[in-house]
TrEMBL record:
Residues 156-303 form the N-acetyltransferase domain. Gene3D superfamilies: 3.40.630.30. It comes from Nocardioides jiangxiensis. This is N-acetyltransferase domain-containing protein. Transmembrane segments: none annotated.
Amino acid sequence: MLFLIDSNVAIKADPLGHVLEAGVDVAMEFLRLVSTHHHDLRTHPASRIDFDRIADPKKRAARLALFGRYTQITSPPQITAAQIAELGEAVPGSNDAVDDALLASVVGHAVGYLVTEDDGIHRKAARMGVDQRVLRLADAVNLLRTLHVDLPSVPPSVRRVKTHELNIDDPIFDGLKADYPPFVAWFQKAAQSQRDALLIDGAGEHAGLVILKREPTGEHGLPGPQLKLCTFKVADEYSGQKYGELLLKAAFEQAHAEGYEGIFVTLYPKQEALSAVLRGFGFEPLAGVTTDSGEMVFAKSLVAPKDTTLTPLEQHIAYGPPWIAWDATTPFIIPIEPRWHRVLFPDAEPDDGALFSAADVGTRPFGNALRKAYLCNASTRLLKPGDPVLFYRSHDEKAVFVIGVCESTLVSQDPDEILAEVGNRTVYALADIQALARRGDVLVVKFRQDRVLRGNPITIDELRAEKAVNGWPQQVQRIREEGREWLSTRSDA
C-alpha cells in the first residue's frame, strides 16, 4: 500500500533534538510497521511549503534536510473542480492550499491512504467522502497491525463501576482538570452520589471511561428521561483502538434497557475527534445551546417518529442501535465460521462478568467497534443499505448471536481496492484478503452492529421451523418472506 504522510507526521517522526513531539512513539511505530511489511511511504511536493514558513533559517534548513529523505509522489493529481466547488478555492501558498493538494492525491486515487494529524484535513475528507482513506497515526498503526496480525492487543472489556472507584489522580483526568478548574469538586460530588461509570482498564491506568447521569426531566430542553454521558474520555495512548465506540456500545445498551428517550454529551469545540465519532452515531449539536463553561451539547433521540423521510440506514444511525426498519428492508443471513465470529464479535462470547469481554480472544480494534466489515466469496448482489444482516455462527453453536445493518457493499477481485474500502474494520489480515481474491469475486459487506443476542440466540431449529430458511445456511441468502414478520418480533425477544 502507498501511504502519503503530511508534514506533521514527518515532524513527529524526525526530532531535531532531545525534545520530542507529542505522539512520537506512535509515529515511530507507524514507520516501523510500514518498513517491516514493505509498504510505500511518500510525501507531497506541496508539503515543503509548510517548512518554508519556519522563521529560523537553521531550523528551516534542518527540517527540509530531514524531509528530503522521503520520496515524493510523482505527478500528483491537480485539485479538481468538484473539490473546489465543495471546499472553496484556497489562497495559493496558504495552509489550506497545502491541505487541499494533499487531499487531491486521495480524491484522485494517486495514493492508498493519507496519514495526518490535521483536524482540518479530516473535516474536508469527510465532506469529500474519502474520510475512510484519511487516517490519524493511531488509526494507521492499527490498520497495519490488523492486516499483518503483527501485534495483537490486549482483550478489552468494559466494566460498570461506581464513580468513587475511579482514580481521580489518573492521567486521563489531567486535561479535564486544566479545561475545567472545578472538575475535582464536581468529581467528588458525583462520587458521593454513587453514580455509575463505564470503565475500560489499561495497563495499570484508565484507558477509557464515561460517567453516567440520569436526567429525569431532561436538560437543555430535551424530553426526559435522558442519559447524560459525562467525562466521555479515551486516554491518548489508547487512541485508535475504537475504545470510544466500545464505550458507546455499552451506553447504547444501557439506555435501551432502561428506556431512556435519548442520550446527550457536552464537549468543547476543540474536541473535534470526539464530535466526529458522535456525529457518526446520530448525535447532533443543539443549535444555540451551550453550557456555562462554553461546551456544546450533542444529543441523540432513541425514539423514532411514526412517520419519517429517512432511509432505513439513516433511521438506524439516528435512533439506534438497536433500531432496524424491518418493514422497509430485506433481511439476509450470513454464515460465519466460529474462528472469525470470535474475533469480529468478542462481545457475543460467553459472559465472564464484564459488560463486553473477550477473555480468550486476542481482540483488535474491529472487535471493539460498532462499524465493521465482513468479506466472503458470495454470489449475491442484492444487499442494500439498511438491510438487516443476521450472522449465523456455523459448525459449533449453529445460531445467530449478532444482527447488523448493512451500510454498503463492494464486489472486487482487487486486494488493494478491498483494503481501501474496509481499512481496519475487518477481521481478515492482508494474506486472507489476497487468498479470497484469488478464488474470485469478493463481496465486501460494510455494516453496523445493531444488537447481540447473548442469552437468547436464534437457533437454526427456530429459523427452519418458522420457514425463515430452508436448510443449513451455506452462503449469503435472503430470509424467506414467510419468516420475516416472525423474525422482526423474535429479534426483540
